[in-house]
Structure formats: structure tokens, C-alpha cells
Amino acid sequence: MQWTLVVPLKPLARAKSRLADTADDGLRPGLALAFAQDTVAAALACPAVRDVAVVTDDGRAGRELAALGAAIVPDEPGNGLNAALAHGTDVVRSRRPAARVAALNADLPALRPGELSRVLEAAGEFPRAFLADAAAIGTTLLAAAPGRELRPAFGAGSRARHRASGAVELAVAGVDSVRQDVDTGADLRSALALGVGPHTAAAAARLLIPGQ
């Protein structure tokens, strides 16, 4: 059972504004790109992943992520995260209508291929399923079986919205790397404690993070 992952990424200049207490305006774009690079690299190394489609209009990010092996889908709707995910899913399924598709956050710098594989295996048991983030408020992954709409409802409080939409919440133990997205300095410290990929490690080395 293999999946296509759809990864949305906003323009780097506007990414990760909530990290302002940890990284200044000059560092945040590079940090956001590093998160995405480590996320995509780990996803492509997962045996359950057939391919990765990144939805972005950022030229620099597109070039760097394509170099890792991701397909780049222009964000034609330009109307936010959920519109980008729906568009990316439509593009994937226009080419392969029976594709299993999962939306994955671009800010999972500690992502482990083996843990992702376990989550996707569990998701394959249901028409639609999702994984809550480490804070148990948001969502880091939303999966849809062939013939099922993804119906993304990401954003603040998305765990409750995805559950209300009928998606099954996955209870997979020991997959902290798939849950640990990074929006704040505290999130970044938690990801660093788990062990991040090389791009994030290099970018974070430029920061002064208490407790690092």
C-alpha cells in the first residue's frame, strides 16, 4: 500500500511568523525551507510513500524541494492552506484517479520514515483518517482512500474539525516525529530534542535557543 503525500508550503517570506521570538525576519525564511526540506526528504525515504507533491508558489522552495525528488504543483488557487491541499489532491488524482492521498504538514523537521510508515499503514484501514499534532489541538496528517475526498480543514483547532467531518483519529503510539510540527520556539526546542534532519540542524545552529 503506497501513498502520494501532498505538502503545502506558503511563500517563505511569509512563513513561520510565530517564530519571531526565536528567529528574526532574516532567518525565518531559511528556517521554514529547512523544515520543508527535512520533511520531504524523510517522506521520500518512507517505503509507504510513492511520491510527494509540494504545493507552492515560492520559487526558491520549489527548486530546492524538486532537487530532493518532490513534484512541484503551483498554488493556482492562492487562497490559503486548505485550498492548496484540495488543488494538489485534484492534480494528483487527475493523473492517477485511484491514488491514496495524504496531506502532510511541511514543518515536521524531526520526521522519521519508519514512524510515518506506521501512521500511513494505520490510515489505510479507514476511508479518511487523521493524526493529531503534539499539542492535541491541530493536525499533522490527513489521509483519504481511493475514491474519497480529502476534505482538508487545517488551521487552528483542526483536530476537532477533522473529527467532526467524519475522519477517524488515529491512535498510533510512538510516532512523536509525525506529530511534532513547529510553529513556536517551544515547538522547535521539542523537535530538536527528538532529533531533526540536517537542514534544520544547520539552520537552527544560527539561533540562540535557550536549552538547546
Plain-language structure description:
With 212 residues, the chain is of the alpha/beta class. It has a single domain, classed as Spore Coat Polysaccharide Biosynthesis Protein SpsA, Chain A. Helices cover 38% and strands 16% of the residues. It is built from 8 helices and 7 strands. A 7-stranded mixed sheet has the order 3-2-1-4-6-5-7, with helices on both faces. The chain is globular and about 45 Å long. The mean pLDDT is 94.
CATH architecture name: Alpha-Beta Complex
User: Structural class, from secondary structure content?
Assistant: alpha/beta
Mean pLDDT: 94
Biggest sheet, open or closed, and with what strands and sense? 7 strands, mixed
Form type: globular
What name goes with the CATH superfamily?
Spore Coat Polysaccharide Biosynthesis Protein SpsA, Chain A
- Proportion of strand residues: 15-25%
CATH topology: Spore Coat Polysaccharide Biosynthesis Protein SpsA, Chain A
